[in-house]
Write a structure and sequence with these properties.
Oligomer: single chain
CATH architecture of the largest domain: Beta Barrel
Strand order of the largest sheet: 3-6-7-8-9-10-11-12-14-17-18-19
Order of helices and strands: HEEEEEEEHEEEEEEEHEEEEHE
CATH topology of the largest domain: Porin
Structural class: mainly beta
């Protein structure tokens, strides 16, 4: 009797599972690793998480940390339009102590919560478009934990927090994949930073089936930054006769960046990438001289930098 009951129970469980699977298929709901949850093929929500290692931390090609950092990032995207993101920078050495403020080894030094509205518009959906256009408008808050930053004018010697508005447009289907980036600091210096990048992704190993993304891709790129007077003067100083220095009151071309990146799609939801890059203040002599004095410890007195990094990205 017990055997008969067990057989009936197992049969009921199998039938129930089959019915639930069929119901899920016919209900319109679906989950695809790497793409998230969708309903009737309309994206509903997806999750991305990454952990990056960088050999240095640069801001506009200037050394904010001359030693390695970790950068965890997480984001939620809804309906393929709206995203919530948070990223953090972790010191993994005692650089802060040597740079004149509290050592924060294995503690985060900056936190960036933010939100963005963005979408990819393609000729498949809009026949009047000549090529695919990626657009995004985003907001980001820059938070610094309490620590005695040298020269900071916030609480406990802390450097001020800030807020940013960003706009980005790119044309990924064109040969040189142009990307334009606009950034406005609306809290600390009211400065504007622009960046124009061109590059191209070369597939080194194609996907197993036609139409699949490449397994291994190499993308070289070159980018040039530009800062208005307010942005430049908040970062760079010029030499003065008293030796104290004064803000560099000029706008112009800032960091040039030449970069090469390899991306390996380990599986449909996991990507491992690595890059090497060279940056310099190549086209403005006064900015180049000022950039040499930026690094807090004085150990790095060049306007150029070599930087490398690795990142693991998961998409759900």
């Amino acid at each position: 009797m017990k055997t008969k009951t067990m057989v009936l129970a197992c049969a009921a469980a199998v039938c129930g599972a089959a019915f639930a699977a069929e119901e899920a298929e016919t209900s319109g709901w679906a989950y695809n690793p790497g793409e998230g949850i969708s309903f009737n093929e309309q994206p509903i929500v997806s999750v991305e998480a990454s952990l990056a290692f960088d050999s240095k931390y640069l801001s506009y090609g200037l050394v904010d940390n001359n030693e390695p950092i970790l950068k965890p990032v997480g984001s939620l995207t809804f309906f393929d339009w709206f995203s919530l993101t948070v990223e953090a920078y972790y010191d993994i050495t005692k650089y802060g102590h040597r740079a004149g403020y509290t050592s924060r080894a294995w503690q985060y030094t900056e936190l960036y919560p933010g939100a963005a509205i963005g979408h990819s518009f393609s000729p498949d959906d809009y026949e009047w478009l000549p090529t695919t256009i990626d657009l995004s408008i985003s907001y980001q808050y820059e938070f610094h934990p309490n620590s005695k930053y040298k020269g900071g004018d916030g609480p406990d010697g802390q450097g001020d927090d800030s807020q940013f508005w960003m706009f980005e447009v790119s044309l990924p289907d064109l040969c040189f994949e142009p990307r334009f980036y606009y950034e406005r600091d609306v809290m600390r210096d009211n400065g504007t930073y622009l960046n124009l990048e061109i590059g191209h992704a070369f597939p080194l190993i194609d996907g197993a089936e036609e139409g699949e993304d490449p397994v291994l891709t190499f993308r070289p790129s070159i980018a040039q930054g530009f800062g208005n007077t307010m942005r430049v003067r908040s970062y760079l100083t010029r030499a003065t006769s008293d030796g104290e220095g004064a803000p560099l009151d000029k706008s112009g071309l800032m960091d040039l960046c030449v970069k090469g990146e390899l991306a390996w799609q380990v599986c449909e939801f996991c990507t491992l990438s690595g890059y090497v890059a060279y940056t310099d203040y190549a086209f403005d002599r006064r900015m180049r001289e000022a950039a040499r004095q930026y690094e807090a410890t004085g150990d790095w007195d060049h306007s150029w930098n070599f930087i490398a990094g690795l990142a693991l990205t998961l998409n759900f």
